[in-house]
Design goal:
2 domains; 13-stranded mixed β-sheet; alpha+beta; Aminopeptidase; binds coenzyme A; 300 residues
Length: 300
């Protein structure tokens, strides 16, 4: 029987997560980085599926899922959150077929910009994305460090951190910050994050002005983070690092774009280590992030 490409359903998402974990670890082990991924409940996948089912596709062979593609849209930005093929079946055109279907999702939604985050060391994915009009834009480094190591030397934060509430005025602030930082509102994604009990959202204030936001997980992971001006990014990251060091997570981590010099310098000076080099790829004209730290390669 030929391979079937079909829209994903909720019941597929545990199997697609297992496939993604296996595919990531096959890649990262092959390139000497060790295993990177562990299984997790597919909460954001499920949220995206309910929000816009056109973005999630599986490749299936006699009931076995061999590939998965997942994209979401906010305003005029389309983002490819995942594209993974079973290691035993790579290089046979499955990834390309799945990508065609998610690209159709971008066309149907009228997106003006397309973007994704992939592994710097994966030649296959980068070549495939270039074939589809997405080009390397900038490196994004995954940094982490033992919390105990950072605690001693961190400068006092310049911004005031206040927990995000669920009010309409706060949501307007978040939408405004995102519009300035990444050119689009991510209101629905803030609602998703704010519903997650292991993530805390913070509004960052300079005096009486709200100048940014950041999220921190109970696992010590910082992001997404966004500010209204590029010169605020270092202070915003420093403030979130201070919150993280005051917490109890063993490790602290964040994704830092190569264009965010001041945050990169702070991370390095605090002893944070580059663990995985990633890459933002985008359609021409999108992705000059100097006011934004993504959460991870799927959430952006
Ligand atoms: C990336 C991935 C999804 C691609 O799926 P796939 O089924 O293996 O890819 P396909 O066979 O459809 O297409 C491969 C294409 O990549 C491109 N490619 C492969 N190697 C390349 C290279 N060294 N340089 C440039 N382009 C290259 C070619 O266009 C090739 O097509 P062709 O062989 O017909 O010329 C899959 O390999 C995978 O899961 N990799 C590991 C995880 C990963 O990195 N996923 C992407 C996360 S964003």
């Amino acid at each position: 029987m030929p391979l079937v490409y079909r829209p994903a359903c909720a019941d597929d998402l545990a199997a697609t997560d297992a496939l993604v974990v296996a595919s990531i670890n096959d890649l990262t082990v092959r390139h000497g980085f060790g295993a990177m991924a562990t299984a997790s409940p597919p909460g954001f996948q499920l949220f995206s599926l309910k929000d816009d089912p056109d973005g999630l596709w599986v490749a299936e062979d006699e009931g076995e899922i061999l590939g998965f593609a997942w994209s979401w849209v906010c305003g005029d930005v389309w983002f490819l959150a995942q594209l993974f093929v079973d290691p035993a079946r790579q290089g046979q055109g499955i990834g390309n077929e799945l990508l065609e279907r998610t690209m159709e999702h971008a066309r149907k939604s009228g997106a003006a910009h397309k973007a994704l985050i992939t592994f710097t060391f994966n030649r296959v994915s980068q070549g495939l994305y270039m074939r589809h009009g997405l080009f390397p834009k900038m490196p994004i480094y995954f940094f982490n460090v033992e919390r105990e190591r950072i605690k001693q030397t961190l400068p006092e934060p310049q911004l005031r951190a206040i927990a995000i509430d669920n009010g309409a005025a706060t949501m307007e602030n978040l939408v405004d910050i995102d519009s300035r930082a990444i050119g689009v509102s991510r209101e629905k994604h803030h609602r998703y994050l704010l519903d997650d009990p292991v993530i805390t959202g913070i509004l960052l204030h300079a005096g009486n002005d709200i100048v940014g936001y950041g999220y921190i997980g109970s696992n010590g992971h910082i992001g997404p983070l966004a500010v209204t001006r590029p010169d605020l990014l270092r202070d915003a990251f420093a403030t979130m690092l201070k919150l993280a060091t005051d917490g109890s997570a063993e490790k602290i981590s964040a994704f830092l774009p190569g264009t965010c010099d001041s945050a990169l310098s702070l991370a390095i000076n605090q002893g944070m280590r580059i663990t995985f080099p990633m890459l933002l790829m985008a359609s021409p004209g999108y992705g000059d992030w100097t006011q934004y730290l993504p959460r991870n390669p799927g959430f952006m």
